[in-house]
Amino acid sequence: MVRQALGKGLDALIKQTQQVVNMPTNEAAVQVQQTPGMSVTRIDVNKIVPNRFQPRRVFNEEKLQELAQSIKEHGLTQPIVVVYDAGLDKYEIVVGERRFRATQLAGLKEIDAIVHKHLGDQEMCALALIENIQREDLNPIETALGYRNLMSKFYITQTDLASYCGKSKAAISNALRLLDLEPEIQQALQDGAISEGHGRALLMVTDPAKREMLFKKMHHSKMSVRQAEDAARALMFPVKKAEKGAKPVEVASFENDLQSALGTKVEVKYGKNMKKGTLVIHYNSLDELDNIASRLKTKML
Hints:
By secondary structure, the protein is an alpha/beta fold. It folds into three domains: 2-173, Alpha-Beta Complex (Conserved hypothetical protein from pyrococcus furiosus pfu- 392566-001, ParB domain), CATH 3.90.1530.10; 184-236, Orthogonal Bundle (Arc Repressor Mutant, subunit A), CATH 1.10.10; 249-300, no CATH class. It is built from 14 helices and seven strands.
């Protein structure tokens, strides 16, 4: 019952603040429809503090400077969203930290803000994450940490989160699995040295030593995602030379092709005449099973 109530609360929050979250990425002016819990005012920038739940950890300094110059010339076209903290006598940012930082760089003393009067920690966490996801501003690790934080605070499932964020369940699952990678690899994802596709390829390699070897190779040789996937499969499922008593070439070839397509171990077991048998698809976690199912569905479409 608690899970269901929190999920409904998040759904209601997203619908209530749709006009605030769904802002275009070019910072163009948007007509903000005020609700009973909101008002617009000008606030001293020294009275504003960052969002404690901000999922974004990296702010591109060059782009901040460009936005600051635009604000100097044209003003801020979209207010930030804040909530007042009476204990601190400060306004905490809910949405718009990038605009706030650029306003500071522009040397302005005040900023237009929508003051939201009724937001708790969970709602602030949700809005900060969803705004950044819809803008596609986060790197893969920031997104994954935001997903995990939101699921933990709202006790919602991956399916619910996928619905709220407009993503597929497989996309949510694949993003969260990146947090299983070693810190060095996660840092490379945050720095943009490798892409999310490279990270998923590395997850195919379950042996930590082999995964580190592949990471270093792909990092230094600038592998494409496709090349990284092929290298991961080669490490996990090396093609063996035919031996006496080994499976027929056509069966071995079929297994290799299916393993490459599904990214997991596949076995064909058969009787003497090969007319009947069993196809075995291995998986090591429910997330991996979900990923295999998604690949099979894609192949059938």
